[in-house]
Amino acid sequence: MKIGVFVCHCGSNIEGTVDTAAVAAAAREFPGVAFATDTMYTCSEPGQEEIVNAIKEHQLDGVVVASCTPRMHEQTFRRTVERAGLNRYLFEMANIREHVSWIGKDREANTNKATELVRMAASKLLHNRPLLSKQFDINKRVLIIGGGVAGIQAALDCAEGGLEVILVEKTTTIGGKMAKLDKTFPTVDCSCCILGPRMVDVAQHPNITLYAYSEIEEVSGYVGNFEVKVKKKATYVDWDKCTGCGICMTKCPSKKATDFFNEGIGKTTAINIPFPQAIPKKAKIDANFCMKLQKGKCGICAKVCPSGCIDFTQQDEFVTEKVGAIVAATGFDLFDWTVYGEYGGGRYPDVITSLQYERMLSASGPTGGHIKRPSDGKEPKNVVFIQCVGSRDKSVGRPYCTGFCCMYTAKQAILTKDHLPEAQTYVFYMDIRATGKNYDEFTRRAMEEYNAKYIRGRVSMIYPKGDSLLVRGADTLMGTQVEVDADLVVLAVGADSSAGAAGLAEKLRISYDSYGFYMEGHPKLKPVETNTAGVYLAGCCQGPKDIPSSVAQGSAAASKVLGLFSKDKLASDPQVSVVDIKRCIGCGKCIKTCPFGAIKEIDFRGMKKAEVIETVCQGCGICTSTCPQGAAQLQHFTDNQILSEVNALCQF
Amino acid sequence: MKYQQELKDSIRKALPGLDVVIAWSAGYDPLHATPHFIRREEDIDRLEIGPFSVHNLATYLPGLRGKKVGIVVKGCDSRSVIELLQENLINREEVTIFGFPCTGVVDQTKIRKALGHTGKVDFCQIASQTVVIGLGGEEHKLRLSKVLADKCFSCQYPNALISDHFVGEKISPSVQTEGDDDLEAFEKMPMDERFAFWQKEMDRCIRCYACRNACPMCVCRDHCLAESRDPHWLSQEDSVRDKWMFQLIHAYHLAGRCTECGECQRACPMDIPLLLLKKKMNKEIKELFQYEAGVDPEATPPLLSFKMEEENINEREW
């Protein structure tokens, strides 16, 4: 092999503390190196031309560039050597900037270390082999998990782009958390009025298939060719026949069912359509409260239903859908605030969550839009809002900022004054985080025009006093203790990852952080991608965010899917594991340890062997370290390639 | 051995359904037994079990896949069978296991150390606590406890943990922990002393690979990294570095899989304390994963599974 080595100055970034000319001179002595030089900016156009020319002039068949991290420019230089006619994998990069010049000032030591890194790279290159990717067909359908505003946006954008969309929603209606909101900040427009039309679009779009009250059971396959098993949970109502007339709800005698949509503010009937604008507008029976299903007596809904759609024998159904890409838009859930003993831990009926308050404000909510104390139904005079409940609080394991609570608290303070002009609002806050467009103006309006009293400090205790509550906290600006009489306390409860997020992540083979939020491919440069090809993220499943950001991410994920599907075939990454069938003894240890299910057992002339499914393999290398006899080898990172690097470094 | 006849009867009954039953018979002299492959009824009479039944016969099982095999196991051997089952290296329905309560096996090295190279052995009698060995007309008396293998003193599983046919009464495990003295002594050494210790021990290795060939869990056989060029982990040099590297690869491949049968050490012609390395690895695994190899056929060995997060490995905030 004839290797060319190019040592980059990176202006003064590298040359400042590394003698690049000396590194190049030393490289000329390494086995296989036929040409070595130092260049000012290797990644620049003249720098790349120098590589192309050297390959031609010296008949090089491998190139080492010693410069920055491969995360920056590995792709650049791979394309450069490809332009000169070499296979892109006959290229190695030595990182002498992040790993050398930026972390040490001793020029001599740096030069030695840079030389050793180049020696390792050149040594590995001697063992590199040309690798070629394969082309495979893709299924241009997309699965979107979660029908909140982010999922709706992604579904509509994909459908408008001509893709067939499968939208799976856990509850009986799409709309998510946004559908529960009364108004939205900072414009105070009606949430359901702006979301409603989008929901109708989903229902009516010919390219969208909606599975409501359904969950993902199983995901197999790989980018371009996923197979997804969807569980359609039993509703005991034949949705093909149900017209959503609601007569069943008016006649149902079981009126104590938990009202999930209204956040438990009221009770509802066992057979239920959550709200008037629900999509699909279909009834579902809550089996825990249905007298017919519990005790075998009743069946009134079946008698009154004009379309005869009630079916008490309905079972869960499974459907399998084949898709090429998946967007996870599973949203968030509220933090379980009852861990706060100092706020009553759920014992005081007049301490409620902001989302419960939102339902109370909504005209379609259980109180018809009237603010009433849950305890006695009276209108409150003093309403106290407490921010950062389960946000920015290490003591409950939630150090992160939910980000949107400052804004909705300001909105709720404004709405309180709109509903009850006589009422006085207080807001206990840590800092006001209002960094969006027109956001700060909005919080100021709450204070200045709506006379919300903002108190900077945390609340240490809420306790009952007569038929109201006493809120005791600190005013850190005044340096005093404050006590406020409250008729109603609204807790701005922070966002937690959605229940079941971790389980779904494991099915999708994507990673999640310690709070259960899904990990994006790169915090800045790949915000909606995951590290699993073909799986994208939108909305709060990736981290708490407000409606505009969720919608933006929904569109971004859709554009990623449309971009992926703009090709008819996908190229597989050849940096995958390959099992040497001669060495394989068929023990299947690799199958057990593979986190991606990318290895299957095959029968080879009556013997069990392992085989890697190239398109599923993510190149993590766990199988190669599991296989005791080295039959599984990760291409471009084979044992021999890594050993040659070790041997180049550890010479004795 | 008092259950020998019972075992023979048991094998006689099962033999028609089996291709072969692996047991032990008398070896070339009264101090040695040899693996015994029973294919016909008349082979059964030569079966002998006792303190010389040292070999872990589970080593043969992976090579006999596809045949109906019966195997006689001591407690320690049964752990190897379980581990092989866990790793899909043998099929449960192809293997018929005969277990018996084992009261310990001898360590030939200890006899050799006591008597020197014995040459021709006239006879060997084992009474309850003594071994009488006849050499050139002379009788040598040895205390049984002086010649039993170290592993037998700390044995926790004297009865087969898995068996289709168990002969005799189950006995309770040893309460002594004498066998772990070597590990405790090793762990007390500072790092540089440990390094020097292994350097000295490994220098004796002649790379015969007897340790590997005797190991029931070494299943790569013809594909062993020790002799492969691709991947090329080891050179064929006669350096301590390569010899030691081989033993480390062996130990790493056995971490959490080794059932501590001690065959590696028994097979070593140079008396290198190879079991010590493996015991140390297993101890680490036990502390980290609360796992002991070859005890529960339903368990998954910790290093043969994938978890996003391990309970005892802190990957964050350190």
Descriptive notes:
The complex is a heterodimer of chains A (652) and B (318). Chain A has 652 residues and is α/β, with parallel strands linked by helices. Chain A has five domains: 3-125, Rossmann fold (3-Layer(aba) Sandwich); 141-233 and 316-331 and 498-564, 3-Layer(bba) Sandwich (FAD/NAD(P)-binding domain), CATH 3.50.50; 247-304, no CATH class; 335-496, 3-Layer(bba) Sandwich (FAD/NAD(P)-binding domain), CATH 3.50.50.60; 577-635, Alpha-Beta Plaits (2-Layer Sandwich), CATH 3.30.70. Chain A contains 18 helices and 34 strands. In chain A, strands 10-7-6-18-29 form a five-stranded parallel sheet. In chain A, a hairpin with a 2-residue loop joins strand 32 (599-604) and strand 33. In chain A, helix 2 (45-57) crosses helix 3 (70-83) and helix 11 (354-361) packs parallel to helix 12 (405-419). In chain B, 31% of the residues lie in helices and 14% in strands. In chain B, the strands form two sheets. Chain B has a five-stranded mixed sheet with strand order 2-1-3-4-8. A three-stranded antiparallel sheet of chain B has the order 5-6-7. Chain B has 318 residues and is α/β, with parallel strands linked by helices. Chain B has helices spanning 4-14, 75-86, 108-115, 144-147, 150-153, 181-188, 191-203, 210-214, 240-253, 263-267, 274-289; strands at residues 20-26, 33-38, 69-73, 95-99, 121-126, 130-135, 138-143, 165-166. The mean pLDDT of chain B is 90. Chain B folds into three domains: 1-105 and 156-175, Rossmann fold, CATH 3.40.50; 108-147, Nuclear Transport Factor 2, Chain: A (Roll), CATH 3.10.450; 177-318, no CATH class. In chain B, helix 9 packs across helix 11. The interface between A and B is medium-sized, with 24 and 22 residues.
Descriptive terms for the model:
heterodimer, A: 652 residues, alpha/beta, Rossmann fold, FAD/NAD(P)-binding domain, five-stranded parallel β-sheet, 18 helices, 28% helix, B: 318 residues, Nuclear Transport Factor 2, Chain: A, 3 domains, five-stranded mixed β-sheet, three-stranded antiparallel β-sheet, globular
